[in-house]
Design goal:
- The protein is mainly beta and 88 residues long.
- It is built from one helix and six strands, in the order βββββαβ.
- A hairpin with a 5-residue loop joins β4 and β5.
- The two termini are 18 Å apart.
Length: 88
């Protein structure tokens, strides 16, 4: 597994994940996630989010299909998949 750090804009409660980094950011709200070793670090990753009071990151993957299966099993309409670019 590889570690990536998600950066958020808009504050810790109302913030939205906007980018993933290979190293932790120096400031601002962030969250560490793990993705598969074969993640394309020049592209983007997919996040399974539960929308509501703040976005809860439920999972991260380099493959959208993996998260589509998880979302189907959860069966709740508040869950959605977002793509976030990886920056160096």
């Amino acid at each position: 597994m590889r570690r990536l750090w998600l950066e958020f804009e808009g504050g810790p409660v109302e913030g939205k994940p906007v980018r993933a980094r290979l190293r932790p950011p120096h400031r601002g709200p962030w969250l560490r996630v793990q993705v598969q070793d074969d993640a394309d670090l020049d592209g983007s990753i997919f996040l399974l989010l539960r929308r509501g009071h703040g976005d809860l990151v439920v999972g991260a993957s380099c493959r959208r299909e993996t998260l589509e299966d998880a979302r189907r099993r959860l069966g709740d309409t508040r869950y959605e998949i977002a793509s976030v670019p990886i920056v160096r």
